[in-house]
């Protein structure tokens, strides 16, 4: 993803509280922001865009594009004589590029998994407080019976051993969704192996949107959404405010998974959303 001058100016309009036509801001970056529930896209024929999470936008730009000030970024892009020193003040990359320091993704496990990397055996069993980064993912192979579990939030990923009780029916290998600019590598890897994918995220409209837009559409039948058996009880302890702020950014009619549709209806009924972090501190003996 790159931020063009045109889209940067459109973002400023949104930050200023304006609603703009979707046709004037078509880009993969805008699509990503919609998927993240940072921008809301509404309408069927004449679609429009509205910013619903300004803090989330600034965080996204800083984390994904290393842009810390969109206003200064625009000024820089409009100045053909800008120096690299000036550029560095605005971005963490003096060339204002989206070059990646690493390919690959983070993995974690609370049990030992014997895998293969570059035709050599590797044991996936990180010590507490550490993870394993798979760089040469093209040669990374895991046993067929292992279920790959994508974890949406970093806290859950780092404390996955406290959530063992949720996954006692599968042999899981956990993958971190962050950093998000590694997700294409992960999708490419998942498509190359026979293993199934299970998504573990927040139990709200935004979480379902991430599952549908980032994973299900690429992995099809291989992908499923993890839904706790006690979700009907747990969701009652969720957050009403986050429900009120979120908007559906996927086509419900296209969903073919009854359990996902049931979860959507349950969220609408309770008018609440539940952070997946809830399950870190929940009694595993329930």
From TrEMBL:
InterPro entries: DUF7281. It holds the Pfam family DUF7281. It comes from the Bacteria. Residues 144-281 form the DUF7281 domain. This is DUF7281 domain-containing protein. The lineage of its organism: Bacteria, Pseudomonadati, Bacteroidota, Flavobacteriia, Flavobacteriales.
